[in-house]
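Following up on my earlier message about zinc ion. Here are the inputs again, as you asked, copied directly from the submission form:
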Amino acid sequence: MKPLPILAAVVCAFFLLSSFATPQATKPPDRQVAVTIDDLPAGMADRLPAADVTAMTTKLLTTLRDQKVPVVGFVNEKKLYKAGEVDERIKALDMWLDYGFELGNHTFSHASLNQVGLRAWEDDVIQGESVTKLLLAQHKMKLRYFRHPYLDTGRDLETRREAEAFLVERGYRIAPITLDGWDWMFAGVYEDAKKRNDTALQQQIVKEYLAYHDAVFAYCEQLSARIVGYEPKQILLLHASSLEADHIGELLDVLRKRGYSFITLHDALSDSAYSLPDTYVGEEGTGWIEHWAISQGRIPQGEPIFPQWVIDRAKQLHLSTGTVPPPTPDGPPTPQ
Ligand SMILES: [Zn+2]
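Thanks, got it. Here's what our run produced:
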């Protein structure tokens, strides 16, 4: 036999095999994520009647329970205190435990460590414990997780470390986040569209919210690989809202398509990535992959651009009250 046809046959066989192998190769890797939901009982609790908070909570928790997604919800107890509605609001909070989920502390009034000073912030942490602790005790559980409002962990390292020592002393494990698609920004605009029965706008927001989250997930996966060396067990930040109550199922599908399965926060925190050196300090709170990157002296780049029309719409609606800080004129608003 001449060598040339043999070579050709080998090359053909190679391409034939690799074409068979393609579906296998494009299958996403096995990924894991813990879902966390902030600003309970609802991000916009100040604007919503208790009945709406209850309906929203029921819908959200039903989807999460049906799909067997473990969740820790982080509470701002200040949102429970509305005249004549306290009992119903506490009941809505208690539903999280009845449905089998866990609650953590997100401070009483959603105070930023970077704004109010360490002592006042510590008081806000303590004040944020009373009802949640009681409800947990009724379910034979303990308050063990804390999430920083606005992800603000301190403007200088001394404050950051003092706050961390305070939290550890009170029995908390800090709940970091690694995936954040600013759902709260979409949620405010969605809530308004829903109130006005503008279904076209609601659909547009949902489409954008899903696409942006998908882009953020892809970006964070790549950044993880570069900074951590692998993709750690991720922790997703979402917020209690009508948007999530109505559409979290579609977001969970986006995650499943990327190869994610859903794990507990406890499991996620067992990943050694969460003990990486972290000396991040700054005016702006941010996710932990960015913390690790900046601690290594590397500046994360190429993150997806948040859709400007959603920011503009939120500004028009003056959606800066409650839990959302005012959007800055020169850039995107601060995530929570
Ligand atoms: Zn928050």
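One observation from looking it over: DSSP finds 13 helices and eight strands in the chain. Hope that helps, and feel free to reply on this thread.
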